[in-house]
Amino acid sequence: MALNGYSVIDSDTHILEPPNIWRKHLPGQFRKYAPKLVKDHEGGDAWDHGSGSPDPIGLVSTPGKRFEEFRWFGVRYDDIRPACYNGKARVKDMDIEGVDAIVVFPPERTIFRWLGQPDPEVSLAGIDAYNEFAQEEFAAADRTRIFPMYQMPSLGVDTAVRYVRKAKDAGARGVLIGSWPNGGANMTAEDDKFWAACEEAGLPVHVHIMLESRENLVKQASDAQSGASPLKMIEGRRRAISQYAGVFTRVTPIISQFLFSGVFERFPKLQAVFVEVGVGWIPHFLEMVDDRYWRNRNWVEFEIDRAPSTYWYTNCAATFMHDHSGIKLRHSVGVGNMLWSSDNPHHGNDWPYGRKLISEMMADVDPSERDQLVAGNAIRTYKLDNVKRAAPGKTKTAVRVATPKAAGRNGAAAKASRNGARAKASGNGAKRSTARNGARTTRKTGSRKR
Questions:
Q1: Any bridge partners for residue 272, and if so which?
Q2: pLDDT (tens digit, 9 = 90+) per residue, 30-74?
Q3: Contact call for residues 424 and 400 (beta carbons, < 8 A)
Q4: Domains of the chain by range and CATH?
Q5: Distance of alpha carbon 189 from the chain centroid
Q6: Cβ within 8 Å of residue 189, ≥6 positions away
Q7: The pTM is what?
């Protein structure tokens, strides 16, 4: 059963910046600071941020490719699907896959470069240019299906609060922080002004994997000026890929600060979403934060009235992709705290087989819970129950994706698009959850005697 036309919502997708983004959206006086599109050492397209070590586009543009075709270098814009960077093309690819709506995040490499610009005016110009493109161009393809999160600057609390208002005025459904609102390495009392603004605006706060202090961002930008040889780049990327499996370890200290700080006591309607971190590890993490709370609550004098894990269930959520463990442990994670996602167009995506992955992971999941995981929780988080999805037009007819027998797990997208009209998928739809369910009803957090 679909609510307002939403049966499957992808809660973590990205944009690869189009070649003309800075020429169109960055004011002329700042264009000398804009990344330049250059060739990598294998003839592919890459974005040069002035560091001498350009960022190739290969692994952030993989939809429709077989795993064996993945490569970091040597990939050009002419080689990839336009949906990676064009909103109208993305809608068509959503129809092929059978995805009704997407939550959109920026190209992280580029955004962190802008956040790390030493000149605050230049930093804001880059952030503004991206937000303008995402909100006014990319999402304009269908504002009932494409929901970009509004990027916050890293220039202090007052600037961040001003950008919350800009996000609200732009019609954004959430905000994304790259640093703590104060710009430092940790949450401070000063950040309460930002949390209050987000709560008042009704905008969930997103953390995409990690946060960096403004100081570190500027230092990283400065260090990058030394450049790197292609060989060193390859070695670095090998390390990065090997470390990617443990990406969730970067977010655990951040979640801990949210849970222990009392921020959800002071702002009970504030919602925090942790993106691209998976969920299978969360039950053990929550067990540990509660254990540390009970052992140390007397001498630390925490500013919270209950065990920290309970704030996870009432105020937090996380996105997941390939996460069979998380599905098995969903009642400890919290069924109402999980958002299915694909990371499209980055190399973790399975386009056009996202629905196939959902079916495989959730084969034994009760249909009402599956509805929550793939749509209902996103509808609640982003208040999509007050959005009526536009009636599909000729370009919005969803089609059945090819099965593995027909085209292989990561077969060509063209074969997928020829497989006729999509049948109504069992278990789709989005029942509005009446409360965060799952582990809250089964886990006896806080049961120890005080």
A1: 205, 316
A2: 999 999 999 999 999 999 998 778 999 999 999 999 999 999 999
A3: no
A4: 9-14+88-391+423-442 (3.20.20.140)
A5: 26
A6: none
A7: 0.86
